[in-house]
Amino acid sequence: MFAFAAKSTLKRGAAVTVPRALASCANYSTSKEAIHVPNSKPAIGPYSKGILFGNLIFTSGQLPTDPNTNELLGNDIKTQTEAAIANLQSVLKSAGSDLNKVIKTTVYLSDIKEWEEMNSVYQKYFDEPYPARSAFEVGKLPKGSKVEIECVAHV
Q1: Which stretches are transmembrane (predicted)?
Q2: Of the residues 11, 64, 81, 102, which has the fewest C-beta atoms closer than 10 A?
């Protein structure tokens, strides 16, 4: 937990303890790099499948599509959740990461009533401590998909 004083009480030249997480930030680049996924079609618009920024990975939403054809896979939420997570894993792997290093996910559902079924698949892929997650219903997803998943992970 960080606490910040309104007025500094440090004297010039005093030693300051910097939390390890903040100190390690100095070792990382601040340039962004597109993540390219081998053996898959490029993104279907003016965006990257993922961005590597320092030691963080920001993925675009991954649809349940076949990576070779971009065709939607499956008609049910469980099959589509499996496919979306597989595509998410491909992006992470291309950046030198994996699902164990996911910090936060966002799950978009075309029908919130399918949350329990989606969750029954989702929970098989993540271990404690689980990533932070937001999940909500949206009006419509590309290609008529039932689910889309994005994440933030570290390398």
Answers
A1: none
A2: 11
Could you tell me if 52 and 95 are in contact, meaning their C-beta atoms sit under 8 angstroms apart?
yes
Q: What is the CATH number of the domain that holds 114?
A: 3.30.1330.40
pLDDT, tens digit only, all 155 positions of the chain: 444 444 445 455 555 454 555 445 555 567 899 999 999 988 878 999 999 999 999 999 999 999 999 999 999 999 999 999 999 999 999 999 999 999 999 999 999 999 999 999 999 999 999 999 999 999 999 999 999 999 999 99
Sequence-ordered list of residues with C-beta below 8 angstroms from that of 9, at least 6 positions apart, any chain: none
**The model's pTM:** 0.82
Query: What are the φ/ψ torsions at residue 91 (nearest 5 degrees)?
Result: -65, -45
How many distinct structural domains can be found in the chain? 1
